[in-house]
């Protein structure tokens, strides 16, 4: 066979293989997040209680090349705010709301690629009591706030590693706040092809002003609705009480977060055809030069 023909055929075989070889082998796409049907509707018109919620995509995934340890991630956030304040002509009550949302995405790898998925969750915020009688020694107004344990389902299966414990700022007479932060982590390993993930997250929040003082659950949103005169418990800038971070607390770090990180762990070895084609091309070029 003529040297030129061997060279051309070898280079052509190499090019064909490389064209079929996966590039941008690992992707995360189709990221969605929305409040679920069980999520309590926003209420920003009631004079003595307000609640609202919002969802956002912080990282929408993308694509990475087929290189071991290369990774791509997606991240979402659910935020909410609940407060209750018994005014002069408003009823006192223990307001309980349901916080629930759905999130989904798809991870896809090229032929022969193996990957792992790490799922990380963060749930953090602050519970607030606000004394409305100025610390009056003889006054009896109190309040309390809390959140229930969080349940996370992944593809309709309850995931224990992502559950959290309930948090309570107990009934009391004076200004106080209690910050909390809980983390969850789980992994899926040795994956190939396409993996679809669907999350459902649910918990309840309560602001109890049955004893007359303000109460609030701050999970990343400032006071629900437009500012209401005389209500400050639901505002990040007015956090008070022992241990309160006050204005220094960044509300953008509060809420419930899900982050999915996909990492390439193995790539296909070059095939015999690729090695043979490359070898023939090199030999042919050397002979031609000789």
Overview of the structural elements:
This protein is mostly beta strands. Strand 8 and strand 9 form a beta hairpin. The strands form two sheets. Strands 1, 3, 5, 7, 8, 9, 10 and 12 form an eight-stranded antiparallel β-sheet that branches. Strands 2, 4, 6, 11, 13 and 14 form a six-stranded antiparallel β-sheet that branches. It folds into two domains: 44 residues; 243 residues, no CATH class. Helix 1 runs antiparallel to helix 2. The longest helix is centred in the first third of the chain and has 18 residues. About 2% of the residues have low confidence. It has two helices and 14 strands.
Distance between the termini: 16 Å
Strand portion: over 45%
Low-confidence stretches: 17-22
Mean pLDDT: 83
Count of DSSP-assigned helices: 2
- Overall geometry comes to elongated
Secondary-structure-based class equals mainly beta
Relative helix content: 10-25%
Biggest beta sheet summary: 8 strands, antiparallel
Q: Count of DSSP E strands?
A: 14
- What sequence of helices (H) and strands (E) makes up the elements? HEEEEEEEEEEEEEEH
- The domain tally reads 2
């Amino acid at each position: 066979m003529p040297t030129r023909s061997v060279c051309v055929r070898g280079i052509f075989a190499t090019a064909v293989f490389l064209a079929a070889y996966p590039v941008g082998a690992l992707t995360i796409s189709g990221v969605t997040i929305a409040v679920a049907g069980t999520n309590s509707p926003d209420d920003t018109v009631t004079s003595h209680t307000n609640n609202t919620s919002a969802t956002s995509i912080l990282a929408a995934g993308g694509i990475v090349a087929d290189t071991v340890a290369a990774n791509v991630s997606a991240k979402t956030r659910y935020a909410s705010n609940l407060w209750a304040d018994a005014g002069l002509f408003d009823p006192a009550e223990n307001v309980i709301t349901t916080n629930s949302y759905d999130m989904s995405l798809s991870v896809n790898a090229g032929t022969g690629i193996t990957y792992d998925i790490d799922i990380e969750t963060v749930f953090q915020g602050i519970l607030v009591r606000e004394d409305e009688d100025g610390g009056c020694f003889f006054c009896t107004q109190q309040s309390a706030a809390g959140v229930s344990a969080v349940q996370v389902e992944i593809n309709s299966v309850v995931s224990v590693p992502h559950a959290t414990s309930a948090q309570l700022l107990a009934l009391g007479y004076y200004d106080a706040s209690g910050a909390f932060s809980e983390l969850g982590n789980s992994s899926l390993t040795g994956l190939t092809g396409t993996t679809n993930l669907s999350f459902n997250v649910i918990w309840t929040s309560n602001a109890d002003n049955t004893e007359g003082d303000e109460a609030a659950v701050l999970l990343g949103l400032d006071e629900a609705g437009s500012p209401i005169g005389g209500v400050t418990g639901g505002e990040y800038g007015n956090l008070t009480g022992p241990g309160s971070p006050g204005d220094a607390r960044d509300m953008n770090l509060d809420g419930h977060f899900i982050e999915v990180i996909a990492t390439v762990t193995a790539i296909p070895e070059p095939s015999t055809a690729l090695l043979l084609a490359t070898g023939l091309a090199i030999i042919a070029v050397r002979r031609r030069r000789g």
